[in-house]
Amino acid sequence: xxxxxxxxxxxxxxxxxxxxxxxxxxxxxxxxxxxxxxxxxxxxxxxxxxxxxxxxxxxxxxxxxxxxxxxxxxxxxxxxxxxxxxxxxxxxxxxxxxxxxxxxxxxxxxxxxxxxxxxxxxxxxxxxxxxxxxxxxxxxxxxxxxxxxxxxxxxxxxxxxxxxxxxxxxxxxxxxxxxxxxxxxxxxxxxxxxxxxxxxxxxxxxxxxxxxxxxxxxxxxxxxxxxxxxxxxxxxxxxxxxxxxxxxxxxxxxxxxxxxxxxxxxxxxxxxxxxxxxxxxxxxxxxxxxxxxxxxxxxxxxxxxxxxxxxxxxxxxxxxxxxxxxxxxxxxxxxxxxxxxxxxxxxxxxxxxxxxxxxxxxxxxxxxxxxxxxxxxxxxxxxxxxxxxxxxxxxxxxxxxxxxxxxxxxxxxxxxxxxxxxxxxxxxxxxxxxxxxxxxxxxxxxxxxxxx
Length: 452
What we know:
The protein has helices at about 5-40, 45-65, 70-75, 95-105, 145-195, 200-205, 210-260, 265-290, 305-320, 340-360, 405-410, 415-425; strands spanning about 75-80, 125-130, 135-140, 300-305, 325-330, 335-340, 365-370, 375-380, 430-435, 440-450. Helix 1 packs antiparallel against helix 5, helix 7 (about 210-260) packs antiparallel against helix 8 (about 265-290) and helix 8 runs parallel beside helix 12 (about 415-425). A hairpin with a 5-residue loop joins strand 2 (about 125-130) and strand 3 (about 135-140). It has 3 domains: about 1-110 and about 120-195, no CATH class; about 205-275, Orthogonal Bundle (Helix Hairpins), CATH 1.10.287; about 295-450, 2-Layer Sandwich (Heat Shock Protein 90). About 60% of the residues lie in helices and about 10% in strands. About 20% of the residues are buried. It is α+β, with helices and mostly antiparallel strands. It has a 5-stranded mixed beta sheet. Strands 1-3-2 form a 3-stranded antiparallel beta sheet, covered by helices on one side.
């Protein structure tokens, strides 16, 4: 079926048709059963049985006999006392009420004996006289007029239950046909949002020939365009960065030659510093592009203590050489092991640590802790730089984003360090989260432990 509109219309229309057909078939079956039962019901024999029960046990015996009748027969036979009440305390149907008003008045009484010569008044209904001299009147309704009422009273719940069951089954199949592809669309959309641009839905939904199938084809076409645009952007960034490296190297050579000819000048130092910043920025862009593309590195077993300790020593040496008084304290309480990409993970931890040293104050202390939980290893890096605004905690991991505090203090940096760290940790199936500590910024890296 090509159209989802036609499918929905047909489904609901089928519910109505199936319910009507089922109700008609059930009513026909009940009617046939009632007809067969009444054909086998002899009124004269029933009157004799009722008379015998009344004579032996009185009103209670007649009531028990009435209860003993088969279900369909019992719905057609009514026995009223001389006050006009049914022995089973049932609501009287309209034919019985009309008969009461026409022949019995407010009460049913035994007529006094009268002699009219050759005239004998007809009794419209059979009556029995009990031992206590009370009169009991029989009403036997025809099955043709009572089948609908009996079905309503006895079979109505069954019909309603059947209609609900059928409609629930058809509605479930319809809801499943609509919700299942929507769930697959959502899974693919979440995968694309997480960076997996290779995900597609056509292989699971595209075989449908309705509006959902067309939407799946359009969705995959959009994903293809996004993936191509991302690849072009990545390739452009990589090529531009490589092309900038060559003139940058020539610029440094020319700067060194100029120093030899003219000697050291303050302007040369400024050019050298800016050239170094540009070289660092290009290096970070290349590293981010490398992490953002498919890696050919093999996953290996990584001892986190052995990976983090050299990183701490390298960053400490660089800052000591630059004359910084900032300190790094490394506390390793575990030799936790993870399975992942060692180079990417080293780069991620190093960028977080460099960011903490850069923003943690000239004489502050950066604490690095390694702990093992039941299923994860946690690397915590805490600085004493005062933290960032709460609304910026998630954004500091975006590429080229610099916090308001960093821009205000004119700190050097490109805003790529934490973005590289987040990407490198995500490659290792980990997560990174920032929060404000009492003295500064706390960055927690969680990595799944390797299977023993």
